[in-house]
Amino acid sequence: xxxSAPVISSNTGVAAKLGKAIGAALLDTVEAYGEISFTVxxxxxxxxxxxxxxxxxYQQLMEIAGVDYPDRPERFEVCYHLLSLTKNHRIRVKxxxxxxxxxxxxxxxxxxxxWLEREVFDMYGVLFDGNTDLRRILTDYGxxxxxxxxxxxxxxxxxxxYSEEAKRVVYEPVKLAQDFRxxxxxxxxxGADYILPGDEKVGGETPPPTPKTTDDKKDTGAxxxxxxxxxxxxxxxxxxxxxxxxxxTKSGTQKKGEGK
Length: 260
Description:
Helix content is 20%, strand content 22%. It is of the alpha/beta class. A hairpin with a 4-residue loop joins strand 4 (76-84) and strand 5.
């Protein structure tokens, strides 16, 4: 039986109402795929989130996520996902920043933001002004770089292993057994747009094979001679025909030693 309460409340009128409440701090509003996102000024972030919590009942901060757009002047987006328990509704608030400009911390609004901001700092290198414990939280001590940045190498910079000689975990530069390979997932029936290995020997395109033709009987081996050979019994059948049948008693069973 379906529950009477909806999975999520309707978005009708929400974007206009909250956009008006945010006021001059609002830079952009996007409503797509059943979700509402507000982009606000970085310096007004804490004020906007506090207003959404206290006056519009978005009580919970569910997540802080980072996104990296290397081609933008302010390459990072920091996304705050809010949930209203009383309205059964979610919204997203976003700000943009770069490597040098810090985002205002919201730990004074939600204590859980302390760990969430540390995750974004660890993965992207985004700074948060007002977070008194901005340390790495997911990577190891002494880790180099920020793994979720688009320019971070897939292999990283170092690898670790346990050393029997040193009796501890040691870090060493990454050594790959083989280089990364590029895989082509194109359908084999469509064919590749480039020359496959070996095709360059025949000028780029492999000619189709010449089909075998059998216009004459001599090309197939058929004929009267072949028919006569096929009609002859095999040697196995001839041997079986020459072998005498076993003698049988009245009971129909062969006595021991007979039939040899």
